[in-house]
Design goal:
With 70 residues, the chain is an alpha+beta fold. 50% of the residues lie in helices and 24% in strands. Strands 1-3-2 form a 3-stranded antiparallel β-sheet.
Length: 70
C-alpha cells in the first residue's frame, strides 16, 4: 500500500466548538493536522496511518455534529 502524502479531510464543520474539541483530541493523540477554512472549517491530516487514527478519534464528534445540525 502506497503511503498517502496528500492531506485528507478527516472532519468538516461549521461548529467552532466541534472543531476546538477535535483539535484538542488530535493534539492529545500527537496527530499533526492542518486547518482549511473555506466556508466550512476542515481538519486535514496527511499519512495513511494518521488519517485512519484521526478518523477513529473523531467519529463520535462527526456523529454529534450531524445530529446537532438537523
Amino acid at each position: 500500500m502506497a503511503k498517502n502524502n496528500q492531506p485528507k479531510t478527516v472532519l468538516a464543520s461549521r461548529n467552532t466548538s466541534i472543531i476546538s474539541v477535535a483539535e484538542s483530541l488530535l493534539n492529545d493523540a500527537g496527530i499533526i493536522y492542518q486547518i482549511s477554512k473555506n466556508g466550512v472549517t476542515e481538519i486535514q491530516v496527511t499519512g495513511d496511518e494518521n488519517i485512519l487514527n484521526a478518523r477513529k478519534i473523531l467519529i463520535d464528534l462527526e456523529e454529534l455534529d450531524f445530529h446537532d445540525n438537523r
